[in-house]
Design brief:
It is built from five helices and four strands; from the N terminus they run ααβααβββα. The protein has helices at about 5-100, 100-120, 130-135, 135-145, 180-200; strands at about 125, 150-155, 165-170, 175-180. The radius of gyration is 48 Å and the shape is rod-shaped.
Amino acid sequence: MSETSKFTEDILSSAREKARGILSEAEAETQRASDEAKVAIAREAEAIIRNARADADAVKRRQVSEARHRTKLREQQEEERIVEDVMDRVQKQVSQFVADDGKYLPLLARLIEHGVNELGDETVLVHLNKLDLTRNMTNLEQRIKGLGQVKVEWSKEAIQAVGGAVISSLDGKIRIVNTLDQRFEALEPKLLIEARKTLFGE
């Protein structure tokens, strides 16, 4: 082998060695980069999954909360409907009571007496509803007692009320409202509380 050939072979051998070294380093670098990329991708994937789970949990909590709210709202609406139904029935019973002379007239007489005594005038004007104006007034007058010398006059104008009476001075400036409506209105908050307590344990 000539000197030139040997020199050329040495250069090529050295170049091949360097090339193998470079390739080996490149492969090692590629492997490191690949491993790092896998770790980074795995971390990113875990972070995405964590965030997705957190989002899903938040959505689930919100949906559960909204469902509970809707259920509570429906319960409240149903309770309101039941309580209104109870109050309607009470008012119907009051109407039935008013239609029964034997039960109602003694109460009407007491309401009139109370209003007359509270007013304290010598002559009073008693206002009744349309139905009461058609009743036997003599029967009603006989039931009213304890008025002393007070003169009772009956207004021909009907009041808007389920029952009871409005007692006023002759000039109408002073009025005592003793209607069943007014009494029911005054009792209604207490009745509502009692109805809720009885029905729903509130």
